[in-house]
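User: Modeling request: complex.
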Amino acid sequence: MAKSIQELQDEIIDDFSLFSDWMEKYEYIIDLGKSLPLIDEKYKDEEHLIKGCQSQVWLHADKQGEEVVFTADSDAVITKGIISLLIRVLSNQTPDHIKDADLYFIDKIGLKEHLSPTRSNGLVSMIKQMKLYGLALSQMQTK
Amino acid sequence: MSETILKPDTTFDVEELRKEFPLLSTEMNGHPIVFLDSAASSQKPQVLIDSIDHYYKNLHANVHRGVYQLSQEATHAHEEGRKRIQKFINAGSDKEIIFVRGTTEGINLVASSFGRKYLKEGDEVLISAMEHHSNIVPWQLACEQSGAQIKVIPVNDEGELIMEEFDRLLTEKTKIVSVVHVSNALGTINPVKEIIEKAHAKGVPVLVDGAQSIPHMKVDVQDLDADFYTFSGHKMFGPTGIGILYGKEKWLNEMPPYHGGGEMIKTVTFEKTTYNELPFKFEAGTPDIEGSIGIGVAAEYIEKIGQENIARYEHELLEYATEQLSQIEGLRIVGTAKNKASVVSFLIDGTHPYDVGTILDKLGIAVRTGHHCTQPLMDRFGIPGTVRASFAFYNNKADIDRLVEGVKRAAKMLR
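Assistant: Request completed. Predicted assembly structure:
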């Protein structure tokens, strides 16, 4: 069985506890950002764009069986690295679990500042959008 | 402020001046802060902080109309702030100094009030491609109301206004020219005196957005012959929430009020209201008294250091920063005008401004990243934004060295 949202978050928190300073942490995030081909080029269009003031994010959701598969991308590599963590946690989960997810790991690994609305990097809107997909898809299921 | 800071020979001691700004000795992310975002908002000297403290402890009451001594003293301090600004920019009269919330409100006031009186269908408002959104959107609103149109003076690859295009765009349809004195995103100093002269030759008034010029150079509104000149307190070492709109009396008298309310009226009946005289006609409601006192103190502080000293020192900083940053591989400076104020906007190949800004933040270096509220200008250069380091006279070469080190480190991590 696939890991739960909580298990995945705890895994990430464990991973991050190994870093001794911010440099290591950011180098890791930057590596994540660089190494993931996150989204099919055809979804990098206006329709999938979440415009931030600082950086931009593209998000695509695909229902595969009972689960939602998210793919995303950003023009900024740190934003992209954080996206890949969010995808690790929220992708391949059921719509119900996505919409109810409490994303505590961001705070625990010391990246809360990137989710400040004033930072305007598109991440806050992206999480909102992911949860909206969860909500919409879970309602479709119950009908 | 201690007199010893100013040496008799027109140079000044930056290390002594830095001590006057309490925030400059704080830390950010565990590092002594390097503050390179003064173009967004400058830090505050102790003398300003003291003046506001003094005002609230000893002087506060509502201004004008109070018959008691305290109110009269507060009124005196408030009006003294206006007189200090009049002297600071060499306005002809203190009636021409309107207290507003900042440059944005100054431009909105003119766009709205001048627009209602003078703009009609077929007219044109001439702005430039390097305007801040605050000198674009108010005119768009005024044009929506009146049916007038915005025309834009283009910029060249160095980030300078193409003056031949200005000459061509300035026509009998132009009702007002509204241009920025110093570009916040590029640092370009525009030839506003020439613009004003040419516009006046065709009978067209000119508004100058002085938000980025006032902290860096001497501005004489009579010498420029500007019809309107507007700037913000918080960018000139003064408080936030206060700004100045200078307007020639002849225009301000003709223009209808912007906001209605107390203070701006002479008599009110339900049938008809007569308006107060200048400058009060444009100052509805209880003013920002701490702000008017503070901006006056800030102006005197700048004068005491000497605008020529400031301009000379900042030019040195700008040259040093440009030279040092240019040596970083893959770094491109955006905005290379011949005549520049202390702003360096740049990009590093293969990196996004947001990522560079994030790493610099971790290293205790405050810069601005993004489009700097000049999206059309970023579009002109085909870039999403830049990293912008902006200097004030309280920055030193050590700040720039830290920036250069930080940028190198960010580039290494990100590429």
